[in-house]
Amino acid sequence: MNGADIAVKALEDNGVKLVFGYPGASNAPFVDSVSRSSIKYVLSRNEQGAAHMASGYGRVNRVAGVCTATSGPGATNLITAIATAYMDSIPMVAITGQVKRELIGKDAFQEVDIIGATLPFTKHSYLVKDVNDIPRIVNEAFHIATTGRPGPVLIDFPLDVLTDEYDEENTDTEINLRGYKLLGKANESQINKVADALRKAKKPIILAGGGVCCSDAVDEVREFVKMTNIPVVSTMMGLGVIPTDSDSYYGMIGSHGKKCANSLLNRSDFILALGTRLGDRSIANIKGLEKVKKLVHVDIDPAEIGKNTLPKIPVVGDIKDVTTQLIKIAGDYRTSSEWLSEAHELRAETKRELVKHDTGFVNPKYFLERLSEITNSDIYLTTEVGQNQIWSANHYTIKDPTHFLTSGGFGTMGYGLPAAIGASSAQSDVPVVAVMGDGSFQMDMVELGTMKQYGIPVKMVLFRNDRLGMVHELQYKMYNSNFQMVDITGGPDFCQLVGAYGIKSAEINENSQIDDAIAEMLKDKESYMLVVNVSPFEPTGDAYNENYLNKKEG
Amino acid sequence: MEKYTLSILVENSAGVLSRVVGLFTRRGFNIHSLSVGTTTDDKISRITIEVKGDVYMVEQVTKQLSKIMEVIKIKTLRDDELVKRGLVLVKIKTNAKNRGEVIEIANVFRANIIDMSTSTITAEVIGSDQKIGAFLNMLEPYGIEEMARTGMTALERGANTLKLDK
Questions:
Q1: Could you tell me the pTM of the whole model?
Q2: Which of B10, B11, B56 sits opposite A310 (nearest CB)?
Q3: Of residues A203 and A168, which shows the higher confidence score?
Q4: Please, are residues A205 and A264 in contact by the beta-carbon 8 Å criterion?
Q5: What is the ipTM of this complex?
Q6: Which CATH superfamily is domain B83-153 in?
Q7: CATH number of the domain at A3-170, please?
C-alpha cells in the first residue's frame, strides 16, 4: 500500500463517495488509486469548476465535498472556489498534489506554495511530510471541515509521499487537535438574559443568517417563530430559513434586499441575530444599529461576536442548542398585534411591480415567480452572481434554505453552473436548476463538457441581455450612463453553443412563453438550456434601487 | 490606546509563526513587538506579542488567534500584570578618549561589555522598553554603529502561570 492508497482509504473511511477534480503529474498516484476504490471521480474542465462542484455537492448532501488538483496551476485554479467556500462557511476538503519533498522551495516545475497562498481563507491546511501521518491528517481534515463553523481544509500531498510505502505499524489514525476548541452548551445565564430582554421588547425581530442552516436548526427556528409570531427577515445566506412566502417572513435585508425588510429592522427595538456576520452588504450602518437596538448576536464562532458590532447580549453557541433553550424559556412570548399590524402595513406598502407583457423581453422576476409556482419550489436552485442572483433571492420562493445555493459572501461569478453540477451529482431525485446571467455563465461554461460527459441533468436558465447587468446598472446610476466594459455583445449563440455539446435548448422573448418553456425544460431528465431574453435596462429592483427611484421621483 | 501583551502557547510545528503573523496582517492589526521561543515541553513554543489598541481590538485579536488550530492557549495581560524584558546588543563608536565614559554609562545601566575593538565597544543590556530606550539615548552622542534588539518576552507577575491542562 502506498501513500495514495492509504489516502484514498482514509477518504472512504470518512464516507467519501465522489470526488471532483483534474489530474496532473503530482496527483497522478491519487488518481490511480481512486480508480481501484469505491470512490467515483468526476473530471471537470477547470479545477475551479471542480471545487465549486464539491461545494454544491457538499451543501446538498450535508457533507464535506472533496475536490482535487495537481500542483502549481492546478492548485492555484482552486483558489477562488476555496475562498468562496470559506466566506460562506461551506465544508470542503481540497486535496492538492505537490512536487517531491526534496524539490520543495526549489521553484520546481509546477511548484507553488499553495498552503501559503490559501492561508487567509482556509479553516486549516496541511502539508503532508510523512506517509504515516496520512490517516490522521485526513481524519482531522474532515473533522475540522464539518464541525463548529464549517469551512474548507486543504491537504497538500508531495508526489513522493503519495508513492512512499505505507507502514501500518507506525501510523496513528487518532485525531489529535488540542488547539481546536469546539463549543459545549451555550451559557444558560446568557440565554436567560435574551429571554428577559425579549419579554421587555415591544417590536422584536429575528434576523436569520446562514448559520441557522449550518447548525441544522431550521426546524427549531421555525418552531420558535410559530410559537412567538416574531417577524423574520434574513440575510442572503439565511434565505429560506422561514419559507419566503410565509406570513412571518418580510424579506431579505441589505443593499440588495427589500426595503420593507430593512425598514422593519430599523423600526424594531430588539433584534435576535442568528448565525450572521452582520456584514456590510446586510447592514450598511452598523454603528447606528448598536446605538439604538437591543441586539442579541448568536454565533458559533466567538470571533464573529464583536467583529463588526458590539451586541448588547452576546451568545456564543450552536443555534440549534440556543433556539431549543429559547423555545423552553421564552416560547410563551407573544408578539404584540400592534407590531404585527405595523409590519403588515409596511409589507403592503411595497409596491408590487407591474409586469408588462408584449415588450419583446421576458420579465425575469415574473419568470422566477412562475418557476416557483410551477415547480412548487421543489427543486434545487443555484444562482450565479449579479442581477440573476438578486432577482432569484427576491422573487423565487425559497421554501428550504438547503435548496438555494448561491455565493453570498464572496460573490463569485462562475459559481452557479458547477455548483449545480455538484448538486445534481449529490442526488438524482430533485431537479437542479441553474439560474445564470450571460456574463457569469461564460466564466465557467467549459463545465458543459463535464455535464455532458457524465449525463448530469442540470437545467440551465440563462438570462440574456448581452450585458454585465449589475455593473451596467451601477454605471447607469452612478457614472452618468457612461457604459464601459459591460457590453458583451458578440457572445455566442447560446443555443448553438449547447447544441455543440448535444444539449437541447430553447429561447423565449415574451412572458406568455414562460409556462410552456418551463414545462418543456423540466420534461426529461437531461441537461437543457432555456435562453431567456431580458432587457438590458431591467432593474435589479432591490432596496438600493427602490431608494434611488424614490429619490428621483420625489 | 493601551499596550497589551499576548502570551500564546502554540504547537511547535512548521508554519505556525506565519499563521499567527499572517492573521495580524490580513485583519489589519499591528504588532508592536514579537518574540518566539521554546518552553519546557519541546512540542510547545511560546510566542509573546505586544499590541497597542483598545480592549475590543485586543479581544478580537485574541478570538481570531484562538481559531488557529495550532494555537493552544492565549493569555492577554496589561503592563501592570506582568514582568517584561527585552535585550539589545549595541555597537558604539569609541576612541581612547571617550571609552571610559561609555563604560561608565554601561555600568550605570548594568549593561555588560561583551566585545571591544580599538574603535568600538559592543554592549548588551536587558530590561524594559524604557530602560533600553534610556540607555540608547545616552549612547546616541557617541554614535551607534549598529544595534540588534529583540522583541519583549514576558511572564505574569505572582504565582499565576500559563500552562496546559494536563
A1: 0.95
A2: B56
A3: A203
A4: yes
A5: 0.92
A6: ACT-like. Chain A, domain 2 (3.30.70.1150)
A7: 3.40.50.970
